Amino acid sequence: MILAHNHPSGIAEPSQADELITQRVKEALGLVDIRLLDHIIIGDGATVSLAERGLV
Question: Minimal CA–CA distance to 39: which of 10, 29, 9?
Fold first, then answer.
C-alpha cells in the first residue's frame, strides 16, 4: 500500500504527527499481512517520500 496526502500549507515537510501515523498504519497493516511501501506528502509543487527518508 502507498499512502499519500497533501499539506494545504504548501510545505511538504513531514510533521511529527505524519511520522507517528505512518508507523501506526504500518503496524496495523502488518496485522493483515499488507506491506506499507511508502507515505508521500504533497506540498506546493513538491513531494516528500517517507520511504526515501527511511521512515517506512
Answer: 29
How high does pLDDT run on average in the chain?
A: 97
Q: How many helices, marked H, and strands, marked E, lie in the chain? A: 1, 3
Q: Are 1 and 34 in contact (CB under 8 A)?
A: yes
Angle at 41 between CA 21 and CA 28, to 5 degrees: 25
Task: Name the residue ranges covered by the structural domains of the chain.
Answer: 2-49
Phi, psi angle pair for 11, to nearest 5°:
-95, 115
What pTM does this model have? 0.90
The CATH fold assigned to 2-49 is Cytidine Deaminase; domain 2 (3.40.140)
Q: What is the pLDDT of residue 36?
A: 98
